[in-house]
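Quick one - first record:
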Amino acid sequence: MIKQDQLWPGGFRFLFDDEIFKPGTDSFLLGSFPRLRRGERVCDLGAGTGLLGLLLPAREPDLQVTNVELQAAAVALAEQNTALNGLPERVSNLRADLREPGQLPKAGSFDLVVSNPPYFDAARGAVAKGTERGLARADCTCTLPQLCAAAARLLRHGGSFCLVFRVERMAELFTCLQGCGLEPKRLRLVQNTAQSAPKLLLLEARKGGKTGLSVAAPLLLRGPDGGESEELAQIYFRDKE
């Protein structure tokens, strides 16, 4: 079922399918992570319904965003979201297979690439194959090496690739990035509480960057009282309510 929500009262509205493309905390976490600069050209690989294409301009209005997504149903919703918020001059939606360079925008044309990719290895049978939900959660149509290669191709030299991913695949992620000339530069682990082990990571890699990784303090989703942390509340724009 198609539903509508809003980032904050008076803010961007967005449509989503709660059975297939339901927005998750990971998208909001990634939306808060990149260091945005005015006038940057941004590409979201595997954009789904275009939520990141709203979260990033909500933080920095002067961006040019290109959403790249394979699934037709998701692209249709992304186009509706762009129109719903009056953003056709700043946000474009491209149905394309990121494994096919000929379908992607010009090489080296972006300052920032972002992605909330499928977390699970389809070969390990983590989720059902052949469904829209399965395609969104497992790398049936896009492996981690293919994603990193696409990001590296699209970025200018010195550009950044920011993504959210599973901690359990961190070593594999670093290997893939470095194999494509993307050097991990900034890492932040995401924990439910200060005592729990991290399950997600936020990472920035730089095309042609020198070695040297900075690790920030963990991002905590829950405060000492068990409620939503102050930082997570800001990530969800609750300070604008």
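second record:
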Amino acid sequence: VYASGRTAVDGHLVTRLPAGKEEWRFTAKAVGRGVLTGTITAAELAAGAKVLELSAPGMVAANVTDSAGQPIPCKVQFRPRADPGFADPKTRFDDPDFGPDSTHTAIKNLVYSHNGRFRQLLTPGNYDAVVSYGTEYDVAVIPLTIVEGQETPLRAKLRHSVDTTGWVSGEFHSHASPSGDNTTSQFGRVQNLLCEQIEFAPCTEHNRISSYQPHLERLESTHLMATCSGMELTGKVLRVNHQNAFPLIERRYQQDGGGPTVNNDSPIAQIERLAPWDDGSEKLLQMNHPNLPQILGDRDLDGKLDAGFEKMFGFVDVIEVHPPAAIFSKPASVAAVRKDLNAIFNWLQMLNLGYRLVGVVNTDAHYTFHGSGWLRNYIKSSTDNPAEIDTLEMVRASQQGHLVMTNGPFLEVEASAAGERAGPGDDLQAANGGVSLRVRVQCPNWFDIDRVQLFVNGRPAEEFNFTRRSHGELVSPDSVEFDHRFQVS
């Protein structure tokens, strides 16, 4: 490559090329206008500027609503497809690339819209528009034919097929450029959260207290997502010394938003500083992506047992244990446990040892191309309206374990014994050792479950392994894919 650049608003680009060559190959492209390739000769350049003419774009105009016709946020992916009706059916043109994964609104092949309405340039061709709004709504796949110089309407209605009454979806850990370790637009992060139907999301940038509130106000979407100021205090030792805390008071124009400084010498000293911040105010303290064997008893990772950083657990409310699918993996040997970073496996063993610490899953997203949304927590709530969510209610519900972790399906579990009922985080005494469990799982139309597995004391119980193959009568293709009550000793 001898030269590259972007044209100015008048379409001109001036660049330098080496003397002594007779011909150069070029590629010119623009969003919605396709790609032009060819050659430029020395004679052409000597005669004056080379004029490159890109094709006229097509345009898509979107209007996405819920079942009642009311506007809703959405994420729309544009996937090109080859059809007999367009050029050669064996060919497939590239995905559109609207912008890098650190920008906002139009990112790679997707568009975020906080109200379901937008217009976007597209290269002429055939596409599938995949329209979604988080994991509670059905997806709509709309075929589109974009014609050069014309506007094509995109209309979609999304059905709210998963009933999560009494629970709100939350993301407790995500980032943007104020964190200093990425270039992502914080405005784009808020769009990403909104369009994945995250209903509660504190702002958790590295080492500074910050807020999503100005972005929600700019989008006129404060009624769609609750938020609060917070931070991730990020020091050394790595993995161990990262803690989120929210809510915290943002002091604008002060260093780090008025937040505490890191302690790179001692994770224990750092969390002791963070826990009482803001004059001992009530807050949620989260341990991020922890190396649990190191914290429990191998501080210097030399393979010899010591006190670790166990004192940190006295300040922690919740622990990140993602990815949840790793619950089915176990170390090859007892010795391998100390080297294994399977957080959910180690967390289950900690529960057996009496460490009653609540597990959470978060994306820790640093970019906006599908960054947020693929993991989430459902927190028990007295309201289903994001505009009415109380931050301290979210804090207290999480501390009490009134929370369900998921990578998509919505899970409800209720235990009962002798007329008493309990849900996630509750205590239940069963005098005769028998408990009745009701398990209910809902999914939208774009993914399914194929197994419901009960774990007892951290181990999968073979007698309570309900798969689509072995218990087909219990696993339904409908939105409520599983609803079954069974007895457990």
